[in-house]
Design brief:
The chain is mainly α and 318 residues long. The chain is built from eleven helices and two strands. Strands 1-2 form a two-stranded antiparallel ribbon. α1 packs antiparallel against α4, α2 crosses α3 and α8 runs antiparallel to α9. The radius of gyration is 21 Å and the shape is globular. The two termini are 18 Å apart.
Length: 318
């Protein structure tokens, strides 16, 4: 087996879908992240809602700064989604082969998705940290990837790794729910077309969008307090006047973030920005899965053609 064609196709489709969704929704992501990173001090709050972040960029004539860190975020999204979808597809095939079953149960699906997510987090954590610092910097003062990472030690590039590993339950829940709903929907569609010869292996764009939205909404609500803590740990720190250049935060732990939120904002602080998070992540995941489902067949044809080309090249050179 030279390479796993099915897993490679799954990974490539997922990575391309991730690039599209990240780029389209990046301004919303920047506003959401800056809003989440702010902690109320002495009952003073710079951003009362997510729209305040957007209007700040408009009033300061820094609209393009809503895209600060886009290249880093796209790089992280492409790599993470490729590794995740490849790992998930590979582990899924391996499980089915070893177990001899034709389908995967919910518990096994969660374990496989978590394993793929853990592999992804370890590889892409420095990019995730850098993109968070770039997004939460003052508009117009974001630095490049290398400069952002080189400001601290190598270990600081992995800030929030523990909580990121915890958050692997988010995509695990999401893709498990999506996969189970997808199988049920395809079975229902197939049962309605008993007489027709059809191989329903992909969803329509609308169905994929709706299932993606529902699955991500469920996962986000369950894991949001951890998401808020992670943003605070990785965010850049501003000086008190808020106008000076951003610098990396002193190292913080999960307990530090929890204490700061509880002390300054109370229990409701753990859910600050939940609506914005749901809006962004639901649209992003739904768009990702929609694009992935629609380009899956095209990607599969391209990968098959590439495999045939490589096989013929080896035969000629032999």
């Amino acid at each position: 087996m030279a390479f796993d064609l099915e897993s490679l196709t799954e990974a490539t489709s997922g990575a391309i879908g991730s690039l599209v969704s990240t780029t389209v929704l990046y301004p919303l992501d920047t506003c959401k992240t800056k809003y989440q990173a702010e902690v109320r001090i002495h009952n003073h709050r710079k951003y009362r809602n997510i729209s305040d972040v957007f209007w700040e960029a408009i009033s300061n004539r820094q609209v393009l700064s809503l895209y600060q860190g886009l290249v880093t975020k796209n790089l992280q999204s492409f790599i993470s989604q490729f590794i995740y979808f490849y790992g998930y597809s590979f582990f899924k095939k391996l499980y089915l082969k070893r177990s001899g079953s034709k389908s995967i149960g919910t518990k096994a699906n969660l374990v496989l998705a978590a394993a793929a997510g853990a592999c992804t987090v370890v590889v892409t954590q420095p990019l995730d940290t850098a993109s968070s610092r770039m997004q939460t910097s003052e508009f117009g003062k974001s630095k490049g990837l290398w400069k952002t990472l080189s400001e601290g030690t190598w270990s600081e590039a992995f800030d929030g790794l523990g909580i990121s590993l915890l958050l692997t339950t988010n995509p695990s829940i999401q893709y498990t729910v999506f996969d189970q709903l997808k199988q049920r929907l395809l079975k229902d569609q197939l049962s309605k077309k008993k007489g027709a010869e059809s191989s329903l292996d992909s969803l329509s764009a609308f169905s994929a969008f709706m299932l993606g939205a529902v699955s991500k909404c469920i996962a986000t609500c369950l894991t949001y307090p951890a998401i808020r803590c992670k943003v605070m740990i990785q965010a850049a720190e501003l000086n008190e006047d808020g106008m000076k250049e951003a610098r990396p935060k002193p190292r913080k732990t999960v307990s530090d973030a929890i204490h700061a939120i509880w002390k300054r904002e109370g229990p409701y602080g753990f859910f600050k920005g939940l609506q914005a998070q749901i809006l962004k992540t639901v649209l992003s995941s739904a768009l990702l899965l929609m694009v992935k489902e629609k380009i899956m067949k095209t990607t599969s044809v391209i990968m098959l053609a590439l495999r045939l080309f490589l096989t013929r090249t080896r035969l000629k050179s032999a």
